[in-house]
Specification:
The complex is a heterodimer of chains A (286) and B (158).
Chain A lengths: L4 E3 L4 H11 L3 E4 L5 H6 L7 E4 L10 E4 L2 E5 L4 H6 L1 H6 L1 H7 L5 H4 L4 H6 L8 H6 L3 E6 L2 E6 H4 E3 L2 E2 L6 E8 L5 E7 L10 E7 L5 E6 L6 E5 L11 H11 L14 H26 L1
Parallel strand pairs in A: 1-3, 2-3
Antiparallel strand pairs in A: 4-5, 5-10, 6-7, 6-10, 8-9, 11-12, 12-13, 13-14
Chain B lengths: L3 E8 L2 E8 L4 H8 L18 E4 L2 E4 L12 E3 L12 H9 L8 H14 L5 H8 L9 H16 L1
Parallel strand pairs in B: 1-5
Antiparallel strand pairs in B: 1-2, 3-4, 3-5
The chains are: A alpha+beta (286), B alpha+beta (158).
């Protein structure tokens, strides 16, 4: 690893000042499960590494505030797996967090880091899209909010400007979206997903589906016809509506994880599964 | 400010104070600076789990953590399981079931299993599978490892 300085600010303001001072020679460190690999392989050679885990504001990691669930930039996947509010209100997020890497990875890897790294296969992006998450972005000019749909741009690309950092991800709690997460992998156990998919339904009959690992980013699509969310609608009635939702999928022709035909064929299968679970969950909350 | 870091942390119950390179991982410092070579270096990308140690009660890949991030932390390595040389119940169970074949992955498996039993003293077989999924064994002694953890868990409960 190339030498660098390790800095541990104790406030967001200090971290932002360091970012401003060092510009693109600085790199933010949260869980480190991606960054440390990049440092060791010299894919990134920052002069300064700014560790966010000493920042008081980022503890406690998960809290309810003003009708929103606030997940700080220091929150790791294992925290999400075990949090009772997440389990009750946002189970699809808990399900996605629970399949990221191994126990050891989930004890370090953060939700915010997972999103900021911009992997098209990130497990947590689809549930955050379905639940309507917002990124809370801090800069010396103040704070702004951006929906995750606008934040995620493409492989390794997110809408974060120079000098900005994500301090939290917030989920609205004033509406009930019953959702489920599922994924396609080559094997049980630790693997990167060939498809990531979350489906959510609400009492108004709207169905939200988000799917990733089949294009440059995860896409959110919405069905307002009510057909998909209708527990009484037949499988035959739902099939064409569901299939149309996956029109944005452009699975890689060269990926070693799965061929494009297989991914395309499995999207509606996973979609129907997640939809059924979401409808069941909505029934339980009613 | 320099690229060295003044690190103070506890390893296996003993306070360690040393100046390290900021770019060194926890794995580097445990093995090279402190000389605790029970923790193994293998894939160094967080896939194999041979470098697993317990930091503040949670199992982590020490290859993916800067040593500086462990400042102030309480670290347990495989050497800490048998401080007096007497194997603990988990280690003995791994021996008894023949879980250790070539042995290279065993420190990581032991630490993963220890972290599980600390949090979940009576795990289900599924919980054991999940806990050990991040520590690969190329001798493929997984069944024996699972038996060992089950046996150790029963001992914990009796």
């Amino acid at each position: 690893m190339q030498a660098f300085r390790y800095l541990r600010p104790s406030t967001v303001e200090e971290a932002l000042a360091l970012l401003e001072e060092h510009g693109d020679k600085a790199r933010l460190l949260a869980g480190g499960t991606d960054l440390v690999i990049e440092l060791r392989n010299r894919w990134r050679t920052p002069e300064v590494v700014i560790d966010l885990k000493g920042i008081e504001e980022l503890r406690p990691s998960i809290r309810v505030e003003g009708g929103r669930l606030v997940i700080s930039a220091a929150t790791v996947m294992a925290d999400l797996e075990r949090d009772p509010v997440v389990a009750e209100r946002f189970p699809a997020l808990a399900e996605a967090a629970a399949v990221v890497g191994s126990v050891q990875i989930r004890n370090r890897a953060t939700l915010v880091g997972n999103i900021c790294n911009g992997s098209p296969a990130a497990d947590t992006t689809p549930p955050l899209l379905v639940y309507g998450a917002e990124m809370v972005i801090a800069s010396p000019k103040g704070r702004r909010r951006l929906s995750i749909d606008e934040f995620v741009l493409g492989p390794g690309k997110v809408a974060l400007g120079p000098g900005e950092m994500v301090v939290a991800i917030e989920l609205p709690m004033d509406r009930t979206i019953a959702a489920a997460y599922t994924r396609l992998t080559r094997r049980h156990g630790t693997d990167l997903a060939s498809i990531t998919l979350c489906c959510g339904v609400d009492a108004s009959g709207t169905t939200r589906v988000a799917y990733g690992s089949v294009g440059p980013r995860a896409w959110l699509v919405v069905d307002d016809t009510g057909v998909l969310a209708d527990p009484a609608a037949s499988r035959e009635a739902k099939a064409p509506v569901l299939a149309a939702l996956f029109a944005k999928a452009t699975p890689s022709k060269t990926s070693m994880r799965a061929g494009p035909e297989y991914r395309a064929a499995m999207l509606p299968v996973l979609g129907a599964r997640a939809l059924n679970t979401a409808i069941e969950r909505l029934g339980r909350t009613a | 400010m320099t690229d060295t870091f003044h690190l103070e942390f506890t390893v296996n119950g003993r306070l360690r104070v040393l100046d390290i390179a900021a770019s060194h991982t926890l794995l580097d410092v445990l093995r090279d600076d402190i000389g605790l070579t029970g923790t193994k270096e293998c894939c160094v990308v967080g896939e194999c789990g041979a470098c697993t140690v317990i930091v503040d009660g949670r199992s982590v890949n020490s290859c993916l953590m800067l040593a500086a991030e462990a400042d102030g932390a309480d670290v347990l390595t495989v050497e800490g399981l048998a401080p007096s040389g007497q194997l603990d119940a988990l280690q003995q169970a791994f021996l008894d079931t023949g879980a250790a074949q070539c042995g290279f992955c065993i420190p990581g498996q032991l630490m993963s299993a220890r972290a599980l039993l600390q949090r979940t003293p009576h795990p289900t077989p599924e919980q054991i599978n999940e806990a050990l999924a991040g520590t690969l064994c190329r001798c493929a002694g997984y069944e024996q490892s699972r038996q060992a953890v089950l046996a150790a868990a029963e001992e914990v409960g009796s």
